[in-house]
Amino acid sequence: MILIISDEIDQSTNDVIDWLRFMNMPFVRVNPDNNVFIEQIVISNQGCFDFILKINNKNINFNNISAIWYRKGSLSNDFLNFFVKKIKDKNILEYLYYEWSAIKNFLFFVFEKKHHLGNYFLSTPNKLIYLQKAAECGLLIPATLISSDKNVLHSFKYKKKITKSIQDIFGAVYNFTHYFSLTEQADNCFLNKQLNFFFPSLIQMQLNKLFELRIFFIKNEFYSMAIFSQENNKTKIDYRNNDKRFPNRYVPFKLPFHIQDKLSNLIKWTNLNTGSIDMVVTTSMDYYFLEINPCGQFGFVSENCNYFIDKRIAKYLIYEKESFE
Amino acid sequence: MKKNPLNEFFSDSDYKKLPLSLQLTRSNPIGNSCDAINLVKVDKYSLSLYEVFELYKPISKIIKYKNVVKK
Fold first, then answer.
1. What is the CATH number of the domain that holds A283?
2. Model pLDDT for residues B19-62, shown as the tens digit of each residue
3. For a surface tag, which of A59, A161, B24, B46 has the fewest beta carbons within 10 Å of its beta carbon?
């Protein structure tokens, strides 16, 4: 049985499950709103442990799990949720959070003893560290500056600048309106209108894009897609600002070996066994690394390039028995 | 500069202290039929929403129930 930890709106999880069903492989999917009931966790001598969890009234025994796919999300507990609604005292709530976190982290720790894809503990890496490490691995990165001081940002020598979230994009829904942040141009006119001091913000040199790359990787296999987003005013700064009337071209792309080597070194350092990498190829044919998303979307890479990544993941989980026991 | 959709949550002076990326937040109304179809489609294996899907409640209710959109 394959255990999948995901969230309820992840289409890529559905696509992999389609293949698991086709291959007659039983699975259990856990979303954040499926509370995990701890039937028992046993830790004994000689490093032995076992657990029985109950999710949606279905028992999940550690020994019956053949592989685990950590796609995204976390594990939640109905008792914790109960007390979050009941208790106002911060100290007690904090205590309960820590207690549940200890259990949850232990479960994610033992999940790694099975054949697995994805890693909960590496799911939200510090993107600044990754950026710095990418440069150490020999990859080009865009010149980057973080400051709370308008004058310092003004002194950044590049005329064309962009700003984006330091870690993850902002996203929220209020009153049926979706609010979200993308990569945006931060020209001097925009900076001039700012206060002298504000929350630390990141700016980068704006690259002269020839095209963008979205690269999904599983182990050392790269599935790359070129995105021709630079000709469209809506998408030239950020391809995620999709133009439904004039969609970007997405085509399969073969990475040069020297870039593959550098990415492999970076991936080895991160300990990730899957994820998605964003890069930009400039008009001077330089390859710039932007970031790695361990839980990034890969469905559009798979569909547009006929990579069948969902099938590849299903086969990895079923057939590639890399034992950690 | 265009009006920022997050303006309503902050006074002008506080708003200007936000990170630059957040000051440039965009917004889109959700609830059109396209979003609804996507939500129904992506929810098909979701254990907790399975019943909702099976009952085939009106699409608007599913959106209300989730109150999220695909990122």
1. 3.30.470.20
2. 999 888 887 766 543 444 444 444 444 434 444 444 444 444 44
3. A59
> A148 and A111, same structural domain?
no
Q: Which of A198, A235, A291 to mutate to test the interface with B (most CBs of B within 10 A)?
A: A198
Confirm whether A131 is domain-assigned: no
A312 in a structural domain: no
* One domain, residues A87 and A9: yes
Within 8 A of B43 by CB-CB distance, chain A residues are: 8-9
Tokens of B43: 């929810």
User: How far is CA B12 from each of CA A153, A186, B3, B18, B23, rounded to the nearest angstrom?
Assistant: 21, 19, 11, 11, 11
A90 compared with B68, residue with greater pLDDT: A90
| Residue A38 to residues A1, A57, A158, A198, B12, Cα–Cα distance (Å) | 19, 11, 55, 45, 48
What pLDDT does A164 receive? 94
* A184–B21 CB contact, under 8 Å: yes
The residue among A205, A223, A247 that closes a domain is A205
Three-state secondary-structure class, residue A118 = coil
Structurally, chain A folds into a number of domains equal to 3
Residues of B in contact with A34 (CB under 8 A): 47-48
Return the pLDDT at A322.
59
Is residue A38 domain-resident? yes
Residues 157-216 of A with CB under 8 A from B: 163-166, 169-171, 173, 176-182, 184, 186, 190, 193-195, 197-203
Interface check A147 vs B, CB under 8 A: no
Instruction: Write out residues in chain A with pLDDT < 50, as ranges.
Output: 323-325
Chain position carrying tokens 């710095």? A132
Are B48 and A33 an interchain contact pair (Cβ–Cβ within 8 Å)?
yes
Q: Please, which residues have CB within 8 angstroms of residue A94's CB and are 6 or more apart in sequence?
A: none
CB contact under 8 A, A9 and B22: no
ipTM: 0.81
Same-domain status, A254 and A227: yes
The gap from C-alpha A30 to its chain's centroid, in whole angstroms, comes to 18
| pLDDT recorded at residue A269 | 96
Query: What residue spans define the domains of chain B?
Result: 1-28, 31-71
Entry pTM: 0.84
pLDDT at site A323: 46
B positions 12-71 inside 8 Å of A (CB)? 13, 16-22, 24-31, 39, 41-49, 63, 66-71
Q: Domain for residue A114, yes or no?
A: yes
Residues A110 and A41 in one domain: yes
CB pair distance less than 8 Å for B66 and A9: yes
pLDDT at B4: 59
Q: Which residues of B touch A17 (CB under 8 A)?
A: 45
